[in-house]
TrEMBL record:
Residues 829-894 form the HTH luxR-type domain. This is Helix-turn-helix transcriptional regulator. InterPro entries: P-loop_NTPase, Sig_transdc_resp-reg_C-effctor, TPR-like_helical_dom_sf, Tscrpt_reg_LuxR_C, WalR-like, WH-like_DNA-bd_sf. Signal peptide: none annotated. Residues 465-496 are annotated as: Disordered. PROSITE patterns: HTH_LUXR_2 (PS50043). PANTHER family: TRANSCRIPTIONAL REGULATORY PROTEIN DESR, TWO-COMPONENT RESPONSE REGULATOR. Keywords: DNA-binding. Pfam families: GerE. CDD domains: LuxR_C_like. The lineage of its organism: Bacteria, Bacillati, Actinomycetota, Actinomycetes, Kitasatosporales.
Length: 900
């Protein structure tokens, strides 16, 4: 299990490192099939400090002797597997040994495993616990590759990972079940993929008797809602059980909810029950419900009595616009309604509606499967058009954007005019994301004929900035938000027309015609709470350069998505917020939004959106001077961008890498990286993004002694600055001209640039101008003026959290004979953490709170390797030797008022 082993080995190494400083004992637990025994074997293999002893229950009396053999020079690792199966006296001996290790600090590490689907033994309940969580998709994929005897198609691999829910044993059982033809995608997968036979293989004989039906009824109630727990009162009423009745060991109760200790056991209980018992449990839940016509009791009744007459009631409840039912439950009800519908056309409509709700709930792969069922030969033409419309939205969020464009165009041919307009706007969104302005204009044109505007001119004049790298995907690409209603079509309102008209005017460089329709889109969206219109509003605001409105619209869209449980909209709203904050010069806020957006995008299967969040994180890290993070996020963005044709994300990632080179004092490398992106030619970057990198390229070229290469692109940048959509561009343009100007005019240009910076927010760009002006002054021996500018630059970089750039300013100050001013350190030692970079500070804070390296990596959306690297640098910078010392330092600085 190479992939699984590698991930768990990293976790094990982190645990062994932590155990050396916090007591030496850990109970490792998790659900059946999570790999507890394998984890223990990894620990034994990785332990190099001394001997390893595996202790069995019948040898528990040897624990005291083993502890006496541990010495300072030869620590000991004791491994105990399945400690919960030991008898009570043996567990008591184990508890005494653990207490001795924790209290006396004897050089022994004790790792013991217990099952996670039952309550812990009372003798061990007070010991610190490490619960093995589910495998991530990145950890599961290598495991499939190793264990499969044949090629596994990407779509099959993704479905295996989804269905296994991170359980390694279940994942391997599914791989063993499938033939090479099914693994390769040549034959259809069995349905359901995870059935009782597979679950029995993993759960084994762990299922207890269920005489009162409480286990099965709880599992049935949770299955209906798609949640991990169930309403305790409803389940107990259905079972006619007392509210204070003792619970089976597999269940826990908290805040009125019943929950299985193991998700795998919940699935096994439901799947392995006799069909008549399952039907009885669902019928009891339907009859115990307070409102018989609500969606949940109708759903339970449909599973108890599969009556086609229930299909209409289910579909009506699931599509009620006044209902607050979350999309996941609507999807379940619509799928069940489709299963009970004998008419092929009506069944296709319900599959289409189910796919829309599935997408809103964040299920990309499941939505595509439902769309396949919605476009069969019996489906009406409008329904097939609606399916292609929604498929385009899916692919725009997670697939090749050229394929998305073709789906949108096909939808436009199938749908009636008022719905076809939505599809053509989606096709334009896809072309925009692909960096194809000709196709974008063609889709926006009334007849979709090729535009007369020369492509080179469009590439120069489109006013877009990293704040909106593909917000125009918002036409249909709010990942299902504007997908067709259940009947397969939806009316197109003025907002869509205004967005289309404004977008077309921007592409044609008719900014005088773009402002009015785009302003109407902004105002219309901000007047309501519809997340789709709010996202359109944010997109239009960013095109107009109205960052304040873009932030408001993005924030409201995020709140609306969460209120409506629209999981698929959250990463898109966070993308708008992240780019708006970047545009406003607040890169640390942008980073916060992008880190959360990346997690939600990965959770909902939106790889294209995740690529844009990676690009934001790379851009933010390039300001903060963290080269390893720039590389990591840029490479992640590029992997998806190249596979799916995301020209914008690709350009932004390259720009971030070049800016990191410039910040590290490597202007030649930065100029070489940026040259192909910003200069005319086949490798020029995305038409709406490349001009944003022009100021970096001009600075890099001038600093590398090659200003002649930058003159042409400055003239192109002049068009961008003149359009008024980027408040930073006018001051950046003056700075660029100063870099290329003769000495007798450069002075005035720098001063004019600084005056223009006074009209905009953002310390970083102003500090860059101050730095370049200070360098220019120092080289002309105007040292007093240079020191003033360089000190302003240093302070500006420090204010915005750009330490590497601040170091450049400090180095220039020293070269001019002045030492940079610094705040005196307090006698208590407070302020040591100020020596860390922003990312190191974040990691130090998480570690001080007790997080493992893996937990830190998940929180910050980076790899464990990156956390390891930064933590080593934290220890080296602060002169620390252990996590305990780091905790003490953090606590000390918090007490003295130092800011983390």
């Amino acid at each position: 299990m190479t992939g699984h082993t590698t991930a768990r080995q990293r976790l094990t190494a982190e645990l062994l490192d932590a155990l050396r400083t916090d007591g030496g004992v850990r109970v490792v637990t998790g659900e059946p099939g999570c790999g507890r025994s394998t984890f223990l074997d990894h620990a034994a293999r990785l332990f190099r400090a001394g001997p390893v002893r595996h202790v069995r229950a019948d040898r528990a009396h040897e624990l005291d002797h083993a502890l006496r053999t541990a010495t300072a020079s030869r620590p000991l690792l004791l491994c105990v597997d399945d400690a919960d199966l030991w008898d009570a006296p043996s567990r008591a001996a184990l508890a005494r040994a653990a207490a001795r290790i924790r209290e006396t600090g004897v050089r022994t590490t004790l790792l013991l495993t217990v099952a996670g689907h039952r309550p812990p033994p009372p003798e061990l309940s007070d010991l610190p616990v490490l619960r093995l969580g589910p495998l991530t998709p990145a950890e599961a994929a290598p495991l499939i590759r190793e264990r499969a005897d044949s090629e596994v198609a990407p779509a099959v691999r993704e479905e295996l990972i989804t269905e296994a829910e991170g359980n390694p044993a279940l994942l391997l059982a599914l791989v063993r079940r499938l033939s090479p033809a099914r693994l390769s995608g040549r034959r259809a997968l069995p349905r359901p993929l995870v059935d009782g036979e597979v679950l029995a293989d993993v759960a084994g004989d762990r299922l207890p008797d269920d005489p009162g039906g409480l286990l099965l009824t709880t599992a049935a109630a949770a299955r209906a809602t798609g949640e991990e727990d169930a309403d305790a009162d409803l389940v107990l009423r259905a079972c006619r059980a007392a509210t204070d009745a003792p619970l089976p060991d597999l269940l826990t109760r908290s805040e009125g909810r019943l929950r299985f200790r193991s998700a795998l056991m919940a699935r096994a209980v439901h799947a392995l029950a006799a069909p008549e018992h399952r039907r009885a449990a669902h019928l009891a839940l339907a009859e115990a419900a307070r409102e018989a016509e609500d969606i949940l009791p109708l759903l339970h009744r449909s599973w108890a009595v599969p009556d086609p007459a229930l299909a209409a009631s289910l579909a009506s409840a699931a599509t009620d616009p006044a209902s607050t039912t979350p999309p996941a439950l609507r999807r379940t009800a619509l799928v069940r309604a489709a299963e009970l519908t004998p008419d092929g056309a009506e069944r296709a409509r319900r599959h289409l509606a189910a796919a829309e709700q599935t997408l809103l709930a964040g299920g990309v792969a499941d939505a595509l499967r439902l769309l396949d069922q919605a476009r069969g030969p019996s489906a009406p033409t409008p329904v097939r058009g609606g399916a292609e419309l929604l498929r385009g939205a899916v692919l725009l969020a997670d697939g090749p954007v050229e394929d998305a464009r073709e789906s949108f165009l096909l939808a436009a041919d199938l749908l009636p005019p008022h719905a076809a307009a939505r599809a053509t706007l989606g096709a334009a969104d896809a072309a925009w994301s692909a960096g194809d302005p000709a196709s974008c204009l063609s889709a926006l044109a009334p007849t979709r004929t090729p535009p007369t505007l020369p492509l080179a001119q469009a590439c120069v004049r489109v006013p877009q900035e990293p704040a909106s790298p593909d917000e125009h995907r918002g036409g249909v690409a709010q990942v299902g938000a504007t997908a067709p209603r259940p009947e397969g079509v939806a009316p197109v309102g003025d907002v869509s027309r205004d967005h289309r008209d404004g977008m077309r005017a921007v592409l044609l460089a008719r900014f005088d015609l773009a402002a009015a329709p785009l302003r109407r889109v902004v105002e219309n969206g901000l007047q309501g709470t519809d997340p789709d219109r709010l996202l359109r509003s944010a997109a239009a605001a960013l095109m107009l350069g109205d960052v304040t409105s873009a932030r408001r619209a993005g924030g409201r869209a995020l709140a609306a998505a969460r209120t409506h449980s629209s999981a698929a909209l959250e990463p898109r709203a966070l993308e708008y917020l992240a780019y708006a904050e970047l545009r406003a010069g607040r890169h640390q806020l942008a980073r916060t939004h992008a880190e959360e957006g990346l997690r939600t995008a990965e959770r909902t299967g939106q790889r294209n959106t995740a690529a844009h969040h990676h690009a934001v994180l790379a851009l933010a890290a390039s300001i903060e001077g963290e080269a390893d993070l720039v590389t990591e996020h840029a490479e992640a963005a590029l992997r998806t961008a190249r596979r799916h044709g995301l020209a914008q994300a690709e350009t932004l990632a390259h720009w971030a890498a070049a800016r990191a080179d410039l910040g590290a004092g490597r202007p030649r490398e930065a100029a070489q990286r940026l040259g192909p992106l910003v200069r005319p030619g086949p490798r020029r970057g995305h038409f709406a993004v490349w001009m944003l990198a022009v100021p970096c390229f001009v600075e890099a070229a001038a600093s590398a002694g090659r200003p002649q290469f930058a003159a042409g692109v400055v003239e192109d940048f002049t068009l961008w600055a003149a359009c008024g959509a980027d408040p930073q561009a006018p001051s950046q343009l003056l700075r660029c001209r100063a870099l290329l100007a003769a000495p007798d005019t450069a002075d005035e240009l720098y001063l004019r640039a600084l005056d223009r910076h006074d009209d905009t927010a953002g310390d970083f760009e102003r500090a860059r101008t101050e730095l370049l002006y200070g360098k220019w002054l120092r080289r002309r021996r105007r040292l007093r003026e240079a020191r003033t500018r360089l000190e302003e630059a240093r302070l500006g970089f420090e204010r915005c959290g750009a330490p590497l750039w601040a170091q450049q300013a400090a180095a220039e100050l020293r070269a001019g004979g002045a030492a940079p001013t610094t705040a005196p350190a307090s006698s208590s030692g407070a302020g040591d953490l100020a020596r860390l970079t922003p990312q190191q500070l974040r990691i130090a804070r998480y570690v001080a709170e007790g997080a493992t390296n893996r937990e830190v990596a998940l929180s910050l959306s980076v790899s464990t390797r990156t956390v390891d690297y930064h933590l080593r640098n934290v220890f080296a910078t602060l002169g620390l030797r252990s996590r305990v010392e780091l905790v003490r330092l953090v606590e000390q600085e918090e007490k003295t008022g130092a800011r983390l």
